[in-house]
Amino acid sequence: MAILILGLVILLGVHSARIYADGWRARQVARIGERPWKAIYSLASIVGLALVIWGFGMARADPVVVWNPPAPMRHVAALLSVLAFILVAAAYVRGTRIKAAIGHPMVAGVGLWALGHLLANGRLGDVVLFGAFLVWSVVDFGVSRRRDRLAGVTYRAEGITRDITAVVVGIAAALGFALYLHGPLIGVRPFG
């Protein structure tokens, strides 16, 4: 469990620099440059992610059951995961109404993904992993929305076709991941 927690601290810590140390982050970018900052950020993220994967695998090998979720929670997790994929797609399709309304659909998508998986899984490793991502996403979303309000940042919607694109891409990616990748990569087949 210690490796999983260390990985989460590194991965989510790096992704929290704008939340807790935005001024320090800006000074470092100014001091060393944007490319070196992104290289360090990426390297730390990769190390954190590798530790999370390794630690989560170790936690799954020796599971501690915290609670037994009801079977219908798998369906809730599937629905929230599809919505999460749509939000992530909306973060990358420029000019969606989704981004204009939500502001930070990627972070919201991570939160929905984490919530769904937290509801459907009751082992300690799951609670630590998905709980950490859920807490991080709620804090990041709130801080990011507040920062946008204070700076007067708005996101422009350019047309319904962009939203349709985000929804179609999100649904296709969710189905593709659930049907073909979740089993081989995660070891769990969501649909049996």
Give the helix/strand layout:
Layout: H1 2-14, H2 17-20, H3 22-32, H4 34-61, H5 73-92, H6 97-102, H7 105-120, H8 124-151, H9 160-186
Helix pairs in contact: 1-4, 1-8, 3-4, 4-8, 5-7, 5-9, 7-8
With helices defined by DSSP (H or I, 4 residues minimum), what is the helix count?
9
The percent of residues in helical segments reads: over 70%
Encode the helix/strand succession as letters. HHHHHHHHH
The assigned structural class equals: mainly alpha
Rg is 18 Å
Structure commentary:
This protein is an all-alpha fold and 192 residues long. The chain has 2 domains: 1-62; 64-192, no CATH class. The protein is built from 9 helices and no strands. The longest helix is centred in the N-terminal third of the chain and has 28 residues, at 34-61. The chain is globular, with a radius of gyration of 18 Å.
